Amino acid sequence: MIRCKDIAEMVGVSRQAVTAVLNNSRPNCVSEEKRTEILKIAAQYNYRPNHAAKVLKTGKSNIIGIVMPPWSNPYIAELCMACQRALAERNYTPFFTIDNNFNPVPGNLEQLLSLQVAGMITVSSSLLPDNIDVPVVSYFNDDPRFDSVCTDAEQNSRMIMEYLKKCGHRKIGYLGYFDRRQQYLTAEAERGDLEFPEHWRIGQPHPLNEDLFNTLLETNHGRELPTALIVHNDALALKVMRRIHDMNYRIPEDFSIIGHDNIPFCASMMPGLTTISFGTPETIADTMVELLMKRIADPARPREKILLKPEFFERETVADLNI
To answer: Fewer CB near the terminus (10 Å): N or C of the chain?
Structure first.
């Protein structure tokens, strides 16, 4: 395996110069001719950085730990791929692990931290100890210990409830995890004089699936049902839409549906799924990675919280009851 030292001898420059060029930290430290030669030799001999050597020398690697829930949700898969791209542009390598707050994998985070990661992006920050000495960005969950990138749940809830009210809906239900959206949706329902009772709000610990719709029907047997359902994410919404169809209900005539994430399938479905987006996976990944880079560069900087603003995508799954 070729080393930076070997490339330096072949080109006639210092090892530090080769490292700077390959890491793109100081690409102009040598002439353009030397830079081109360094990159050509590195590619020719399949140069790979020695992460273990860097850990021994500095106590830290250029590995970023990324903790996400299972990739069964296409949105999570797209977000992870976008994180990989954003980190590669900054000469960092992602190490992905699957975990969540509902059924944490014993020893999973300890194994990740044993890699001497330079930082972490995680949806499961509550599993991290208070004395962790690694820069962390908490995604989706606003952990006061760390920098965070979160959805604006308050504005999201207001946008949804105002839209449903405008479309004539007064009876609204919810399928999904009971997260912070619940309190904001409840507050917005009260403000808009809309019905959003607990027996129309159906959740389960993990994982989410289309059986939530069956539970809604069973819980409200003999009682009125909501005309509109707010669903935790698009992956679940598509499953629920299929279950609604299989049980001979109609969308949007019997149940209107609003999802979250705006995954690509939403626009190609029939009917197209009305949904909320908080930005493309690429935009969100860039936001998280840039925030983490700032923390790595300046560990003492004040905590920063970034709210992702919602954008509404109106399609065909919400009926206008005013017509």
So the answer is: C
Supply 139's token pair. Answer: 């995604």
DSSP assignment string, 81-96? HHHHHHHHTTT-EEEE
**Assigned token pair, 177:** 């995890």
Tell me the C-alpha distance between 192 and 172, whole Å: 12
| Residue 99: per-residue pLDDT | 78
322 in a structural domain: no
- What are 213-269's pLDDT values in tens digits? 999 999 999 899 999 999 999 999 999 999 999 999 999 999 999 999 999 989 988
CATH classification at residue 173: 3.40.50.2300
Q: How far is CA 37 from CA 2, 3, 46, in A?
A: 15, 15, 14
Note whether 261 and 191 are same-domain residues: yes
Tokens of residue 307, six digits:
């709210």
Indicate the SS3 state at residue 228: strand
Residue 317 lies in a domain: no
Q: Give the contacts of 53 (CB within 8 A, at least 6 positions apart).
A: none
Is the Cβ–Cβ distance between 141 and 123 less than 8 Å? Answer: yes
The predicted model scores a pTM of 0.80
Host domain of residue 230: 153-279
- The total number of structural domains in the chain stands at 3
